[in-house]
Amino acid sequence: MKKKPSQTGRHVGDEDGGAPANRDRRLARRLVSLYFGLILFGMSVALLISSGLGLDSWDVFHQGIARQTGLRIGWIVIAVGAAVLLLWIPLRERPGIGTLSNVVVVGLVIDASLVLLPEPAHLAPQIAFMVAGIVINGVATALYIGAGLGSGPRDGLMTGLAKRGLSLRLVRTSIEVAVLSAGWLLGGTVGIGTVLYAVSIGPLVHLLLPRLTIADREGPDAVSALDRAGATNQELPHHDSRAREKKEG
Q1: What residues have CB less than 8 Å from 197, skipping those under 6 apart?
Q2: Is the confidence at residue 218, as pLDDT, over 60?
Q3: Contact indicator for 244, 233 with CB cutoff of 8 Å
Q4: Which phi and psi (to 5°) does residue 3 adopt?
Q5: Which terminus of the chain has fewer CB atoms gathered within 10 Å of its CB, N or C?
Q6: Environment class of residue 7 by beta-carbon count within 10 Å: exposed (0-12), middle (13-18) or buried (19+)?
Q7: How many whole angstroms separate alpha carbon 182 and alpha carbon 158?
Q8: For residues 19 and 108, which has the higher predicted lDDT (pLDDT)?
């Protein structure tokens, strides 16, 4: 049975982008974007660690625990992510495949990358590692957020608390200051990289996310992961929440 053409010349049913082949192609693109983004994210964290010039707040915390326990930082990233994910239960947040993949893939890639990366002995390569780490982190974040398959566990914690009537900015700031302080006390590296990451990652993601987001369907009425985030008050991951706050401002 043939589809009836509409007045615009398109077949009825085409506008919803619901053809199985189209859905399969978009799902494949989403999965590639998700896992490529998560792999790049792990590599970017390893670059920042190797630079020795400072990490973002959560990774200062992860590194501090790793130094106190003697465990690999990748395993700490996985363990902390899993523990935070358990806090989603009372908050009634629902993880997606991207959430679960985030917990596992990033930590494994961090450890693998640290084995392969040289340890820079001079300031110039340290700065190069730091800058590369921040830029790649921005690209990676936009890729896995743009896939629209679920936010990271730490981000769901923030949005879950915000849905209880708390200010999202207050929740994010409070949590990040707390983990940064705890990580520093445990021996995590805080430095110029920490500051540069904090001030640059939001604008980077804000610039890249619209370009790397995969729409729900094709055409002028396409709905992107970024649009859904704004429509449902679903926050972007903790790195990207700064970008959304700038967008809302």
Answers
A1: 48, 54, 55, 56, 134, 137
A2: no
A3: no
A4: -75, 145
A5: N
A6: exposed
A7: 18
A8: 108
Domain ranges in the chain are 36-248
Nearest one of 103, 235, 99, 102 to 160, comparing CA atoms: 235
pLDDT above 70 covers what percent of the chain?
79
Structure tokens belonging to residue 15: 């506008």
Q: What is the 3-state secondary structure (H, E, C) of 83-102?
A: HHHHCHHHHCCCCCHHHHHH
pLDDT for residue 30 is more than 70: yes
Q: The tokens of 114 are what?
A: 């640290």
Q: Are 55 and 48 in contact (CB under 8 A)?
A: yes
pLDDT category, 188, cuts 50, 70, 90? very high
Instruction: Read off the amino acid at residue 52.
Output: G
**Residue 11, SS3?**
strand
